[in-house]
Amino acid sequence: MARSSSGQPDDRNTRSSRLPTAKVALSTSSVYPESCADAFEIAARLGYDGVEVMVWTDPVSQDTGALKRLSQHYGVPVLSVHAPTLLVTQRVWGKEPWAKLERSLQMAEDLGSGAVVAHPPFRWQKEYGAAFVDGVAQLNEHFSVPLAVENMYPWRARSREVMAYSPGWNPLEQPYQHVTLDFSHAATAGGDSLAMARALGDRLTHIHLADGAGSAKDEHLLPGRGTQPCGEVLDLLSEWNWAGVVAVEVNTRKCRTRAEREAELTECLTFAREHLASANLTPTR
Q: What is the DSSP string of 23-45?
C-alpha cells in the first residue's frame, strides 16, 4: 500500500470502493461472569467475526482442544489470544512468565489466531522485566503469531502514582515490534488513544475496544460512553486499510440479564462496524 509523507498508509484513491479489512472479535472477558463457552455462543448469534480468548481461571479458556471444538461447533474462529499475564491470572499455567507466553503463542498458532496479547511484567518480577524487551523480540522471531504488548497505566494511590510495570506501562517508550492499544487503559493513564495510534503507526497490531472517563480505575466502558476518541481511532484505521483485529473488551458485569448483556455487546459491534467502514462513506476527491 502507498504511504503518505508522514509514513502512514495512504489510500485516498481507494476509499469509496474498499470494504473494511479489520475484523471485530468479542473478548471472552466481555461476557463475564458468564463462561468462555457462553462467549462463543453469544459471538455467533450477534454476528461477531470471531472471539478473543482471555486465558483465565475458566478451564475451557486454557484448553486448546476445547476451544477448537467450540470454534467448530459455533463457526466462530479464535482471532486472538490474551496471555494469562494479569494480576488475577498469575497462577494460571504456573508461575513461570516466559512459559506462559510461549504456551499462549503455541495455542494461538494451533488455533490459527492472528495475535497474542500480553501485559508488561510487574515491577516485582525483576528478572522477567529486565529481559522482557529482548525476550519479546526473540519470541516474535520464533513464532509466526505476533506477540503484541499492551499499553497499561500508572497505579494511583490517593495523590501518588505507583509505577507498577517494568520496563514501563507505555509501549511508545520501548522498541516493541507489535503493540496492542487498549482505549480504557489509555484513559486511565490520562492519555489520548488517537495520538497513540498515530505515534505507533505500523507497530499498531491489535486493538482492545472499550472506553474510559479518566478514572484511576480501569473502567472498560462501552465505546462512546467515555472520553476517549474511540470512533476517531477506528476511522483512522479505516483510512489506513488496517487489517488487524478489533477486540471488544468491555465490562458488562452490571447487566442483570443475558438480554441486557447482549444489547450492550450489539451496541459495541455496531459502533465498531460503522466506524471501520467510514472510509467507504468518504467520497474520493
A: EEEEEGGGGTTS-HHHHHHHHHH
